[in-house]
User: Fold these one by one.
Assistant:
Number 1:
Amino acid sequence: MLLESHIPFNIVDISKMMDYDIVYTHGFSWSEAEVQTLLNFISKGGVAIVDDNRFARMDENFQPVKYPELEALKRNGENVYGEGTLIYSSMSFGFDYFQYHRKSDIEKAIEVVSKYITPNEAPENVVVLPWVGEDMIVIHAINNNFDGDYIQRQNLEMRIQIPEGFKTENKILKIYQVETGEVLEQEYSIENGWLIFTLPSLDIWCVAALM
């Protein structure tokens, strides 16, 4: 769901939660310690997005449980807790989307997430996966335009957010065509914190690296 909408994310263990400003989390089975970690994250200014009314309704042994402090926050909409916010929906956007393939389900989820995270920009049916290192940005582009076979795409404009503090001076952008092994340098521009470039062609998968 996030991939299709070009919203950058990492998959992390709950112990790493405090390293982030916003988390999108779910799951039926949560221990009391895990719930407390989540509440601590929110109280210190974090934003947690939670969907599904079965969220944290079982303990680590899959036994029914209710955590009163968390249950009090499970009201549809934005719920302030300490210095942060828990955004709750009793609906499971992801489950409904993958079960019924209703575009409205993904739009509801993305509307919530995009209030806090600006999506990258890529053409329809192209998935972008950016990875940011200390001195390079690597972007995987995947062609989802499939009709019995992959339909080649050409001249695809990409707009990728550059993290604050990342230095782009004197860097080059290389495009690696995975299927053919071709490597080429590509022109790019930096505008208001965005890396902007055109991907000449995309068969199934290619990689762009600013380094």
Number 2:
Amino acid sequence: MKTIRTLAAVAVATLGVLAAGAAHAVTYQYTSGSYNIYALGGYSSAGYITGTFEVPTALAANLTLNTNLVGYITSFSFSDGLQTITSSTPGAFVQYFNGFKTDTLGNITTWNVDVRVSGPYGDSFIYSSYPSSYGLHGGCLSATSFCSSEARGADSGGYWVLVPEPAQLAFALPTLLLGVALRRRA
């Protein structure tokens, strides 16, 4: 009888963890390959793009190729080694956040991202698309003239991962400890 109560308590706690995680936004993180085509100005050929975007729920499995996420994104942040453009950067805007496609597990397999910030010499921007007719990633920093620093790479090494929600991790340990404590009592 004690074993059944123990299992029931652990099951209820686990469901609570899963329900809490389902109610939170999710973050996807991107890392590109290096700038293997060219790097001018302050960019380095060893440089690359990193970025994140947050959406209310995980992307569905089997999204079609032209899924547009512009209205779905709650925040973003991308860095190309010289500049960081976030959703809260003054003058920042999304040029493109479309072409998303996911596999049967909801992993991002295709994308087209271009975030920009307006400036006195034109837009500075960070972009990545894969696979496309270009399959490129890069950055353009318009500090003293349009694209006074610029880098570009073939996006053969770029990938996205789903970042674990901190709230889910925070609930997982107490649930595990509760299960251990109840098991010892049984």
